[in-house]
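User: Quick one: structure for sequence A, then sequence B.

Assistant: Sequence A:
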Amino acid sequence: MCDDLTETDAARFLARAGTLDRRRFAALGAGAMTLASMPGCRAQGEPPALPVKGRDVAITTPDGITDAWFVAPTSGRHPAVLLWPDIAGLRPAYRTMAAHLAASGYAVLAVNQYYRGAKAPVLDSLVAWRTPEGQAKLKPLITQITPAGIMRDAAAYVGWLDRQGEVDTMHRIGTCGFCMGGPYTVRTAAAEPDRIGAAASFHGAGLVDTGPDSPHLLLPRTKASFLFAIAQNDDARSPDDKTTLKTAAAQAHRPAEIEVYPAQHGWCTIDAPVYDREQAEKAWSRMLVLFKANL
C-alpha cells in the first residue's frame, strides 16, 4: 500500500528524475486528465476504441450500499470487469481508466471501496493522499475494510454485474486492482471462483503476508489466471514476494505472469506523480492479453 516508505521512495525518485513540474502537479491535484488527453491513451497494439457510456450506480452489499461507476460500450453485450482503485479511492482518474478499459470492449464496474464510511470521491487525486489532510480522511476509512468484507463485497458486485444488460454472462468476469486494490483481485477470484476468469494486480500491496488469509494462500481456491505486475521499489523492499507468488501459483496450478517492472509503486495510475507512460502501457497491454485469453 502507499505507506510512508512508499511515499519517501516516490519523493526521492521524483527529485532524481525531475519529472514533476508545477503545471503537471496542479493538473494531477485537480484530477484533470480525461480519456482524450490521457498520456498513452491507447497502448500499442490495441484495437480502435469503442464509444462508451457510463453511469453512477448504487449496489447493495451485506454491509451497506456501494456507490460505483459503471461504463460499457454503447451497444452490444460484453465481458465484465470489476476494477478496484488504489488507496486514494474512486475518483476522476479511475473513472477515466475504467472508460479506457471499456473502450476495449468490456463492461467495467469501478467501485468505492470506502463506502462503509464515505461516498466517493473521498479525495480528488492520489496527490491528495500525500497531504496530512488526505491521510486524516482516509486512515479511519481504511480500518473499516477487512479481508472478509472485501470478499462479501466482491460477491455482491459479481452478482450485480451479471444482472446488467450490457454484460455477456456467457463470458467469465475479469478483475483488476491497483495498490491496495491489487490483493482485492485475488480475494475476488477466491470469493467467486466459477465467475472470475482472470485477475490483474498492478503494484499490489500485501499480496504476501504472514496471516492465514494472505492473498497468496487463496490461490488454490480460485479458477482464474493471474497477472502480477510488481513495482521495482516494492520488489527491492520484499524481494522474496515474487518467488512466493510464483511458488503458490504453481502449487495451485494457476497460470500466473509475474514481472517486476522498472517503475515506481503507483506507476500505472494516471494521476500518480510517478505515472510512467511506457511501463503503464506495457502493463495495460498484458492485462488485455490476459482478459482476451481467459474471459
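Sequence B:
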Amino acid sequence: MYYAPHNEIVNPRARVMIVGITPGWRQMEVAIRTARRAIAEGDSPEAACGKAKQAARFAGPIRDNLLGMLDELKLSAHAGLPDVRSLFEEDDSLLHTTSLLRYPAFVDGRNYDGHRPGLSGRETLRRMAEEAMSSELGLFDGPPLIVPLGRTVEGLFRRLADERRIDERRVLWGFPHPSGANGHRRKQFERGREEMERRIAAFFESRG
C-alpha cells in the first residue's frame, strides 16, 4: 500500500458518492504528479490535494465506462444536470469519489481487485475499509446517493445496511465495476438496470 493524496478530500455537500475498491496505479501516478506540480506552484497542501482529486478520480477508460453506465441510467436527468459528465467537471460540487481502501494497494505488482486476497476475509483490510467509510459517511450535510462499484464494495455496504448504519434505499445495489477487465460488466448492468434507475429516481425525488 502506497500513499496518494487525492482521497484526503471529502466533499460534504455531495449528492452522489461513488466508491471504488482502491485507487489503481494510474490514479496514483496522476494524483502524485498533479499534487507535486500544485505545491511547486505555491498551492497549499489542501488545494494541492483538491487538484489531485479532480485530475485522478477514476482517471482513464474506467471513467468513460462509469459515465456511460450512469448516463444509461439517466442520472443526469433525475439530478437536474445538463449531462452526466458534468459531475466530473462544472458540477463536481455535487460529487464525492472515494475508495474502501483510501490509499493505492497492490498485490504482486498488480492493482488490488478485492478478491485475491478477499477483502472480507482479511481482518486488517476489512477494518481499514469499514473505518474509512464510517468516517466519511459522517461528514455529509445530507445523505448522498451511494454508488458502490462492484461486488466487493457492495458487500461492505450490505454489512453497513444490515447493521442499520446506512439506509439501504440510498444505495445503488447491483452496479458493476466499470473496469475493462470486468467481462461480466454488461450482463450485470442489464440485469439490475431497471431497479437501479428506479432507485436513482426515488432518491432525487425525495431530495426535491
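Helices lie at 25-40, 45-56, 61-72, 75-79, 123-137, 151-162, 185-207. DSSP finds seven helices and five strands in the chain.

User: Thanks, that's what I needed.
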